[in-house]
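Task 17 of the worksheet. Students: predict the tertiary structure of the chain below and write it out as structure tokens. Keep your answer in the requested format; marks are given for formatting as well as content.
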Amino acid sequence: MTATVPAEPTLKQLHGRAFASLYNEMDYQVAHIDGTLPPELTGTLFRIGPGKFEVGDTVLKTMFDADGMVSRFILDGQGVRFTNRYVRTKQYRGGDVMSQRGITTNAPTLRGNLLPPANTGNTNMATICGDLLAMWEGGPPYKIDPDSLDTLGYKRFDGDRLGYLGSFSAHPKWDPHTGDVYNFGLDLLPTPRLRCFKVDRTGRSHQISSLKLWDMVWNHDFALTENHLVFVLDPLRPNIPTLLRTRSLAKALEYQTRHGSTRFALVPRDGSKPRIIENEALTHIHVTNAFEDGSDTVVEFFRFEDSDIFGKLGKAWQDPAEPTDPRAHLTIDEWPRGHLSRFRISKSGRIAETVLSATAPMEFPQYDWRRSTLEHNITYACKATEDVGHYNAVTRIDHRTGIQSTFDFGLAQTGEPLFVPRSRTAAEDDGWLLVLNHDLRSHRSQLVIFDARTIEDGPLATAHLDHHLPIGFHGTFTRRIAG
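Model answer:
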């Protein structure tokens, strides 16, 4: 009798491993660590992203509709302890039936599709006024116990100030000089608007502005300067008839370059009238940082070259290339290319762009958050070394020298890098870069620690998990050791 040799997985199947669900919740000491953990690097890393890509029999169209799973890494200077736990959302507690629609996936029932999208709590984590929050931009954040990872319910701040949906964007910003936190929420009713507010050091929220969205653009992120909240509003809008007909935001979103422009909105922190500056249509997702240089405002973000990337991604998600494979549409076949840029907005309204990097597939820009509201000199980001697959490398861009250095993980899916300073008073790039990486051949994930100044030299330490972690979004690091 001849034994059957299992076929080697195809490249597409290997890439698809990034979207494999992880159902188990675990807690263990990581046994396999290569290199040497920096003894001064102590604290807790929290990361979040989707954990499973189906609700009962419903296969989710995209990662945006999946319930959040918290991954926690405790570093005590000698070892690494890993714990993961799902955010106990209504959808997660519901079990086998998707009773409420998602951003891109319709529910099986008509009633579920008439409700607002489910709050999956899967996008970012942050500690605000002592509370660890799991955030999703279409509703209030969930409070998470940092020691047990229990879900403690919604954090509503002063609820009446969070608007109709209670929206608290997944990308709050801190002023390191005052300790205040600034954020926005998207209101749909009675008219579309960005509700801007700050949370002071006592935990009280204060609405500072309400910016009308003239034609209901979608916005995900913003930046903070000493005097302004800075929004970059691209002409990405839902086609309302399509939205009503399909009840799918992915199908309804349109990039309307012929009839629209990108608007830079400077919202004063003191509550005075916002400034709106028109510019040619741009495409971006995340903003790095912003600062004021004299009377000018400078904002940095990664600008995509193809203005129709959202339309192409939406079509790929809705119409998989391999319809017999229910997860084929979860894998992106070609990452959009672009470059890191800074846009300088003068007092007169003139806008000038300075390109900071070579053109490449790149996203998830990060920096030393102690430099928030100030000019920063180093930007870190995820990068793809191939057009097909995932972000599989980390890159460091030095704006003082123009040098860009990169570490390539090979066949991998690499998450957003986070910078941790060596001490409170350390120089801007004196510290470590923490990266979650999924080695697709072994189907296991790793916590990788770099010296932030010399990432091209390779990791200082790599902590190998016993399993994979599904593709994720953002996270935070705290010097407090959990547990």
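Marker's comment: The helical segments are 11-16, 90-94, 110-114, 240-246, 249-252, 309-318. Residues 309-318 form the longest helix (10 residues).
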